[in-house]
Specification:
- The chain has 379 residues and is an alpha/beta fold.
- 43% of the residues lie in helices and 16% in strands.
- It has a seven-stranded parallel sheet with strand order 3-2-1-4-5-6-10, with helices on both faces. A three-stranded mixed sheet has the order 7-9-11. A two-stranded parallel ribbon has the order 8-12.
- Helix 5 runs parallel beside helix 7, helix 7 runs parallel beside helix 8 and helix 11 packs across helix 13.
- The longest helix has 21 residues.
- The structure holds nicotinamide-adenine-dinucleotide.
- The site of nicotinamide-adenine-dinucleotide (NAD) has 26 residues, from helix 2, helix 7 and strand 7.
- This is CDP-glucose 4,6-dehydratase.
- GO terms for molecular function: CDP-glucose 4,6-dehydratase activity.
């Protein structure tokens, strides 16, 4: 096991949003590293769901995974879990994370993403056992000027749509809690030690995402329908083929969330605000990304339906930024971040995983462990 994963052995870690796409992968990494995990979330947000297929039953039976299904907006319920389980480390991922849904329900999005974050910060403040926490926001927190260069951590926070903006507000609430409370908790003169950072990651791809209105799940759904209805071809509808995004494999930001919590455990100077984006070569248009999906799918050498895509650009659709890149120099310099799987390799893994989902879903827990092992071997 790597030094990083070794650190988590026997630690008590609270993960909000553990039933979601990234949360399920993070929970699996922590459990296989020997951590005790308290998951706090609503039920899985999708059907099918990676959480339900991830084979966590054995961990629940031996009380290594505690599964609390509850709302992040409910402060007293959240505090109960902090009081009962006394976590040492907190990863906050629970959110309403879909831009289009935030246009349909902005109030719910703000309540969950802003007050949910404030509730987590408040529980961290009031729970002496917590020593290291990472609050997950997004690359969309910045005021988007459609620049061709990447945003840096000190650029203005002012996301355009309700999702992005709620995450900008979540960032600001962390700033206030740090200034008002956590910066003083530096372990000096008998004071408590408590390090809190935020992480702003780019769009993630990987196996097991089934969310609506995300491009890879749209590809997988189109191909699953084609395979199940025995068609020879699946056609993927692409809404924004010309928008450029920083794409990375889901394990890249998760490894960095784990690294941040580990490095700041004993060193408060590492507690900060971090971009976690891919290298420039992996910032591609959605059209390029789907080209790659189709190529990997069609080259994979099975007799499943062939993949192709069509543009379904909607000029009347809600506003989404055209161009978005992150500058990740800070986390590279301070924490040694080095993106490991470039986009072709990410897509290969995603397609392999998606084909397993269609053909033999019972093999997914083993596939997750295999990818985790392969990825962390490179750290
Ligand atoms: N997926 C991406 O490309 C991406 C990119 C950047 C940042 N992020 C951020 O990463 C985090 C996880 O994203 P994801 O893709 O796994 O999302 P997801 O929708 O798969 O999971 C969201 C999780 O939050 C929980 N949740 C939602 N509302 C809740 C509430 N009111 N109370 C308690 N739990 C609630 C859900 O039950 C689920 O466990 C989010 O904070 C998201 O904003 C995601």
């Amino acid at each position: 096991m790597s030094e990083l994963l070794d650190f988590y052995k026997n630690k008590t870690v609270l993960v909000t949003g553990h039933t979601g796409f990234k949360g399920t992968w993070l929970t699996r990494i922590l459990l296989t590293s020997g951590a005790r995990v308290i998951g706090y979330s609503l039920k899985p947000p999708t059907n099918p769901s990676l959480f339900k297929m991830a084979g966590f039953e054995d961990y629940e039976k031996k009380d290594q995974l505690m599964n609390v299904i509850a709302d992040i907006r409910d402060l007293s319920k959240l505090k109960e879990s902090f009081d009962k389980y006394k976590p040492e480390i907190v990863f906050h991922l629970a959110a309403q994370p879909i831009v289009r849904d935030s246009y349909k329900n902005p109030v719910y999005t703000y309540e969950t993403n802003v007050m949910g974050t404030v509730n987590v910060l408040e529980c961290i403040r009031l729970t002496d056992s917590v020593r290291s926490s990472v609050i997950i926001t997004t690359d969309k927190v910045y005021k988007n000027n459609e620049w061709i260069w990447g945003y840096r951590e000190d650029e203005p926070l002012d996301g355009f749509d309700p999702y992005s903006n709620s995450k900008s507000c979540a960032e600001l609430s962390v700033h206030s809690y740090k200034n008002s409370f956590f910066n003083e908790m530096d372990g000096s003169d008998g004071k408590r030690y408590c390090a809190v950072s935020t992480a702003r990651a780019g769009n993630v791809i990987g196996g097991g995402d089934f969310a609506n209105d995300r491009i890879i799940p749209d590809c997988v759904r189109a191909m699953e329908n084609a395979v199940k209805s025995r068609k020879t071809e699946g056609v993927i509808a692409v809404r924004n083929p010309y928008s450029t995004r920083p794409y990375q494999h889901v394990l890249e930001p998760l490894a960095m969330y784990l690294t941040i919590a580990y490095k700041q455990w004993d060193d408060l100077s590492k507690s900060s605000y971090y971009n976690v984006g891919p290298d420039d070569v992996d910032c591609v248009t959605t059209g390029n990304l789907v080209d790659l999906f189709c190529k990997c799918w069609n080259d994979f050498g099975t007799n499943l339906a062939k993949a192709k895509w069509e543009s379904h650009a909607d000029p009347n659709g809600p506003h989404e930024a055209n161009f978005l890149k992150l500058d990740s120099t800070k986390i590279k310099t301070m924490l040694g971040y080095k993106p490991r799987w470039h986009i072709a390799e990410c897509m290969q893994k995603t397609v392999e995983f998606s084909k397993l989902f269609i053909e033999s879903p019972e093999s997914l827990p083993g596939e997750m462990d295999k990818e985790i092992k392969e990825f962390f071997r490179r750290l």
